Structure prediction request, 657 residues.
Amino acid sequence: MKTGNKLKLFGFSELLLGLVITVLVIMLGNRYLSSIRLDMTEHKIYTVSEGTKNILNNLSQPLNLKLFYSKKLSPGLPGIGVYADQVADMLREYQRIAPEYINLELIDPEPFSEAEDLAVANGLNGIAVDQLGTSLYFGLVATNTIDGREIIPFFTPEREQQLEYDLTRLLQRLSSDSNVEIGVLTTLKVSGDPQAAIYGMPSEAWYSIDQLNQLYEVNYIDSGVDTIDPSISVLLVIHPASLPRQALFAVDQYALNGGKIMMFADPLVESEQFNNAAGLNNSDSAAQNQATLDGLLGAWGVVLNSQALVADYENAMRVQSNVTSRGEVLDYPIWFRLDQQAMNEREPVLQQLGDVIMASAGALSQVDSATTDFIPLLKTSETASLINLQSVVFQNDPKEVLKLYEPGSEALTVAARVSGEAKTAFPDYKPDIDNDSPQQEDLSEENGAVTDQTDTQSNAESGMQKDEQAVSGEINVVVFADTDFLRDQFWVQIQNFLGNQLAVPSAGNGKLIENMVDQMSGSPDLISVRNRGSGNRPFTLLESIRQNAEQKFLQKEQELISELQATENKLIELEQAKNSDNSALLSSDQQSEVDNFTHKKLTIRKQLRQVRHSLQKDIESLETKVKVINIALIPSLIIIIGLFFLYLKSARVRRRG
Prediction:
């Protein structure tokens, strides 16, 4: 056989062998290497968080997941197909992590099929895709081994970044068989105050708290308590500065023993102004309570400025002044509305809330020596500042309050999540001793701990041991520097409709409380699940080039438009001149000038069309080039390198032959 034919046969054999090896590698990879994953995306959108893995690894019973997705109908809805692949991939990953507990079934509910009837029966929402009533379904039905059932009626792309949180929360709810109990510790009349109607004040229960009764078992805790039942899933502490020392000690111990707390504290509780001499706590006992609260927050690594109010002019609410007969409407900077930009984008519970309104709030910051993590949840604009409490509390004129405002230079935190290792704020406190004979407190400036100078001696004399008290532990607390934003006045109107109470919210305050309780009442691992990045990856370079091209042609377009406008104005002047002369005909010079301007107008319009057409063509050309570079360049380079090595190998074979 000739050398040339041998080389051709050898080359064909190598190509065939390479093809066979490639197919075998793909088959073996799909069979044995499917569990190996490498997430190269910027925000790790295909990587399951450790919190989700912990929840999946601790499931107590098998769960059946049915993902309904009308795949054949999705091409007409941009973005749905890509998002559906992401949802399915996420659920497959859940199944891979916990194969014994996650049973996944993918269902395509074709129109007028039994699968579509099953989707409707399970409460999934369909989207009409044509005038014939054909509906697209994209939802999840999850059940456990008993009667538990949870659904996601439709996966909206707007919640793409909250996908992992939504799925993990659903599984955690379905797997848990324990009832969620919420505790409320406060001296405020949040459950209703019948006597308030006498003074013209609202007497109904605060809807932000009352709405929790519809979802959970809510228990109101006496303010004189010295222990908190550990069975309480989440403890809401509202206006802690009014609580006695033994109650704050109970809060301290509950937190250190793993209890989850939502605390609402601020310098000025406006609902208490009528009960407390203009809202200031001037009594000795109130001052001691505030000092004890400062010590408790300090032990958690948090500082609340109790002598100043946050003023945010950029987000200020508009209020009507009742001081003058004119009833002026003014900006009131200590009442402000925070939009989505002011919320931590990494927190799923803060997404799609709408605005949150806060009133007479304080500012939170982290202690320099804190051992806990301090994560801001809500922040003001960067021009917000602090106003002295004493200068505001006696002032009824919004105009005078506005005069006190001076722009700041950085955003202030009004709500934060605090977690991590913390020490007790009451290292030497014994409630069974100190409740009988209260002692003067002494605050430690080093770590914010509250100590009692006589407690050590009393404890030593009684022979009591401190083993029963927690001296340190992992805490999980959310602190809001405001209590008034819980009140109906600032976010909801309760209307009577056909004998029923109808809540009409004007802000997302209530939804925020509901979401936060929902998150914290679950596993601690659920709290660690954060928002993930979006799977939508636009060509940012292309957008930049597009903007530059538009800027390039925009100037020319504006010049032509101005010139066209001037030409049209000149034609109007000539027409008006003809009418003023009461002449039906134009002179030859006038007619020639009209013809010139008419021709110039047509020429400018043609140039304007060419500019806009050139802009579109340039953008399309740039888009094609960028896509070719991003999509085809790397594969082309690999092919060229492969051909080059094949050429070198063939050359060596020819030399040997």
Observations:
- The first strand starts at residue 63 and ends at 69.
- The longest helix spans residues 588-656.
